TrEMBL record:
Name of this protein: TonB-dependent receptor
Protein species of origin: Limnohabitans radicicola
Family the UniProt entry places it in: Belongs to the TonB-dependent receptor family.
Subcellular location: Cell outer membrane
Source organism superkingdom: Bacteria
Signal sequence, start to end: 1-32
Keyword Cytoplasm found: no
A GO cellular component entry from the record: cell outer membrane
UniProt cross-references to SUPFAM superfamilies, sorted A to Z: Porins
InterPro entries: Beta-barrel_TonB_sf, Plug_dom, Plug_dom_sf, TonB_rcpt_bac
Length: 919
């Protein structure tokens, strides 16, 4: 693939940058007149100073977050905390509305390396991106985001390497115990019938202690959270479809169709952390740590869908005729369609994910060598169940009263059109469990799917280092890391059939209640289908070719040898430190899947013949890296990074599956198919980074950084000439002449392009400008990202994308974060906002497939207030109130070609009230 080079967007001077400059000048002037106060700080300022110290003392370009206190990161999830760092943002979950995936420097979450205490972690998704909302913030002490390569880092990513860190108990001077409890109230997402408030609670306890004359340390943590969400709206406009319909001898535009639900989300998560640390002397230390997280989610969707603009969407639907319309400039602003066959949706989507991570690291001295061993195991299992049921009018005869009227349409505001039906969709005498549209020839009354993902990583590491005298290199490290990763995905799917005979099967809805059809407000019948398999439905398992292709496995064995030298020297009387290194990586991958010759498929029984197939390859990578840091004087630091980095392919793209058939729709009949690529190799890039940082003691800093990534290889799906000879069966239908050569669409490696950007950050207390502002401070950063990469949309799984080319997935042109805070005498106040521009994001569709969709830019505002009693009988008690998504920012998808909103969700603001006690 050769990307098309676009004209690069120029970086414009923004108000944020102007604010940074003004505050920087003021702070510098004030600092020149003040001495650094030797005072003990806590809370927000202590966390900020700890993070600044990590950033300042690092040899690489890093960003860091430290807990404000034991078990207290700034946010409830790690993803939210990370997303406030310079050059970092988050994609919210389309299900919960909370931050989930983390994008760094304009690249999708799959380009990050995700670590826990320096060890690579398994992932619940079908790709590699770590879902950081699995890590409760109370169980972590800090997070470090490495933006440049380091030869000693395992599992590095192409955009960054994110290392989550738990506490080390021997780093504390005494025993610490913290207990906390919070209640949550989730406000209405929409102020109309059907949308209520939700509630939840969150409990945590942390225990840190030292024994045996401080040679043994123990840390334990436990978190339990539960949430019962109120109704949250979802409105889908069928890809922003505007229909051209006949009206009085002319073509006019009208809404095409809609799907709208009220989604109720019930969830709970249990997290636990344990650390045992043994350090009898300065030359020996051994630490065992364990992390556990288990979440249960239930999403209930209750809504209504149907074609509006005269479309026939099923075997029982003859389409409607527009009447009583108001036409303005060729647009039907209002009107009525006959023969409307609405489909009431009562769907359940439930899943459970379980993460277990165990590690044992030992450091010791052997003669002049500093040795380290590290054994680790990480495993994630995610089991899902999707239950889709439909209700409406039984049979194939249209009811003359079944009409739908619309109003308020201006040609593109599809998500805001008002609808009204002629029939009462909440009348149990006429509305039944059935197949209202006649899908599947009337043989499908619902759908069932139970996908499961399992991912595990076993790893061992041995390394050693010693002081050397090799010119500027004063210390050398060598190491060997071996990891064995296995990921599998399986699914069972099929049609739900009502336990009643007949072509137009129908059944009274068990325990039906009156609800509303999503944002339409139209009354509908609701019920809970959980447990109805057997009582109301029977399952007809399907082995369609696309279902079989969802079953696959990947095994990856990676051996990494590295050498690294620490630099401590001078250049032109300026102290220079840093490191230089090389990783030599050997990868051996084997994959499995299934061969599906569609000539064996029987459409009547939804079954195909299939057989297992395997594949694999091996390859080598050499990743050099260089990090240099020089002190320019007066706390001015200049950093330079250079290296080669990689991101391994999505594991689903590596499956060995071959799904093919004879295509006779083109001028020359030939075999065509799709599948994975067992020989797929990583994304690779050469990177260069430059950063200038001005520190104000340990209190604050200003930084400006630039980066450039030259993508040497990229991965996309495209059709290539392929010989299917090894996959032919006796029943395969071949073209005339018997040629087995055709076209296979699969992921493949091609040439890349470039990504570049500028990041600016300011983190200062206002007391540096005036003592009258003591306690106030600001953390603000902005990043401008640009890429020359454009990719053919046909090479990706996209939903509602009707453009020929797409931009780099995950890229927001601009990302800005702001946090204003006040902390003094136990009182803490903070308001935070994070903003990102439009981007191409990744979501899971209704078939459990990952899809790329255009997501509108958003600004989310959060706030927090707390008070800690520092004396008296209540000493150690902290009262807290926290507001999340206070402006009710919606999650909206759009059509890049027309600008029309295709899907919108609002989750409502959430408020948390609680208390913690430290002793």
């Amino acid at each position: 693939m050769t990307p098309t080079t676009q004209k690069r967007a120029s970086f414009r001077f923004s108000p944020v940058a102007a604010g940074c400059a003004v505050l920087l000048v003021a702070a510098s002037a004030a600092q020149a007149q003040q001495a650094v106060d030797n005072v003990v700080v806590t809370g927000i300022r202590a966390a900020i100073e700890s993070a600044i110290s990590t950033k300042k003392n690092a040899d690489s370009i890093v960003e860091a977050i430290s807990a404000e206190d034991i078990g207290k990161l700034p946010d409830t999830t790690v993803a939210e905390s990370i997303s406030r760092l310079p050059g970092v943002t988050a994609q919210r979950s389309a299900v919960t509305g909370r931050a989930q995936g983390v994008s760094v420097r304009g690249m999708s979450p799959d380009f990050n390396g995700g670590l826990l205490n320096g060890r690579e972690q398994a992932s619940t998704a079908s790709n590699r991106g770590v879902e950081f909302d699995q890590f409760p913030a109370e169980l972590l002490s800090s997070v470090v985001v490495y933006k440049t390569a380091d030869a000693s880092l395992a599992g590095q990513g192409l955009s960054s390497t994110i290392d989550l860190q738990t506490v080390r108990p021997l780093n504390f001077a005494k025993r610490n115990v913290v207990v906390s409890a919070r209640g949550e109230s989730m406000g209405k997402a929409e102020n109309q019938p059907g949308f209520g408030t939700g509630s939840g609670d969150r409990y945590s306890v942390s225990y840190i202690d030292q024994f045996a004359d401080r040679t043994v340390g123990v840390a334990l943590g436990f978190v339990k959270s539960k949430s019962n969400g109120g109704g949250r709206p979802n409105f889908n406009t069928w890809g922003g479809w505007v229909a051209d319909v006949d009206y009085q001898g002319q073509k006019v535009k009208a809404p095409g169709g809609f799907t709208t639900d009220i989604e109720t989300i019930n969830s709970d998560r249990t997290g636990a952390m344990a650390v045992l640390q043994y350090k009898p002397n300065k030359d020996f230390e051994s630490t065992v740590d364990f992390f556990h997280s288990k979440g249960n989610f239930s999403v209930q969707k209750r809504g209504l869908e149907g074609p509006v603009g005269g479309l026939s969407a099923g075997g029982y639907d003859s389409g409607g005729v527009l009447t009583n319309a108001t036409i303005v400039n060729g647009i039907a602003q209002s009107g009525t369609f006959s023969n409307f066959r609405g489909v009431i949706r009562n769907h359940n989507e439930d899943y459970t994910d379980t993460l277990n991570s165990l590690g044992w690291a030992t450091k010791f001295k052997a003669a002049d060598w500093r040795m380290k061993t590290d054994l680790s195991y990480s495993k994630v299992v995610k089991d899902s169940v999707r239950f889709e049921t439909t209700a409406g009018l039984p049979g194939s005869v249209n009811n003359p009263l079944d009409t739908i009227s619309f109003s308020g349409f201006n040609g593109n505001n599809l998500a805001n059109v008002a609808y009204k039906t002629g029939l009462n969709y909440a009348d149990p005498n006429i509305i039944k469990l059935t197949n209202p549209q006649g899908w599947g020839g009337g043989t499908q009354d619902g759908y069932y799917a139970a996908p499961s993902n399992t991912d595990s990583i076993k790893s061992a590491r041995l390394s050693g280092g010693r002081d050397v005298n090799l010119g500027p290199i004063v210390s050398a490290d060598i190491g060997l890391i071996y990891s064995d990763r296995a990921k599998t995905r399986t699914t069972q799917e099929g049609a739900l059939l009502l336990n009643t005979p007949g072509a137009y099967a129908a059944l009274a809805i068990p325990g039906a209640t009156t609800g509303v059809g999503g944002l339409t407000g139209i009354p509908t019948l609701n019920w809970n289908p959980a447990g109805s398999l057997g009582s109301a439905y029977k399952l007809s398992p399907w082995t369609e070719h696309d279902i079989i292709s969802k079953n696959w496995g990947v095994n990856e064995k990676v051996t990494t040898a590295y050498v690294k030298g620490d630099i401590d020297s001078k250049i032109m009387d300026k102290a220079v430190r840093g490191n230089v290194g090389l990783q030599m990586i050997h990868t051996n991958q084997s994959t499995s899947g299934y061969r599906v010759d569609q000539a064996s498929c029987d459409g009547a029984t939804h079954s195909c013949g299939y057989a297992p197939v395997t594949g694999g390859t091996s390859y080598n990578d050499f990743l050099p890296s260089l990090n240099l840091v020089t002190d320019l004087g007066n706390d001015n630091v200049l950093r330079f990074g250079l290296g080669r980095v990689l991101a391994r392919p999505n594991m689903e793209d590596m499956k060995a599956t071959r799904d093919f058939s004879l295509d006779t729709t083109t001028g020359v009949p030939m075999l065509k198919g799709s599948g994975g690529n067992p020989n797929l190799q990583p994304f690779r890039a050469d990177t260069i980074d430059l950063s200038w940082e001005k520190y104000f003691g340990k209190k604050g800093y200003f930084s400006i950084a630039g980066y450039y990534k030259d993508l040497k290889t990229y991965i996309l799906k495209r059709s290539q000439v392929f010989d299917f000879a090894n996959y032919i069966t006796p029943g395969t239908v071949l073209p005339a002449g018997g040629s087995t050569v055709g076209l296979l669409t699969q992921a493949s490696n091609g040439t890349g392009g470039s990504i570049n950007g500028i990041e600016m950050a300011l983190n200062v207390p206002f007391s540096m400008a005036s003592s009258a502002l003591d306690g106030f401070g600001v953390v603000v950063n902005t990043s401008l990202n640009n890429s020359s990469v454009t990719l053919p949309a046909s090479g990706f799984s996209t939903s509602g994308v009707n453009t020929t080319n797409i931009p780099l997935p995950g890229l927001s042109k601009q990302v800005t974060n702001l946090r204003l805070y006040y902390e003094k005498s136990g009182l803490q106040l903070s308001v935070a906002a994070r903003k990102r521009s439009d981007f191409l994001g990744s979501i899971a569709d209704y078939q459990d497939n990952t899809q790329l969709v255009y997501i509108k830019g958003e600004t989310q505002v959060d706030a927090q207030a707390s008070y800690e009693f520092t004396q008296g009988q209540a000493k150690g008690l902290t009262l807290l109130v926290q507001g999340i998504n206070l402006t009710n920012a919606e999650f909206a998808q759009y059509d890049a070609k027309t600008g029309n909103t295709t899907d919108r969700k609002k989750f409502g603001p959430a408020m948390m009230f609680g208390a913690s006690y430290k002793f």
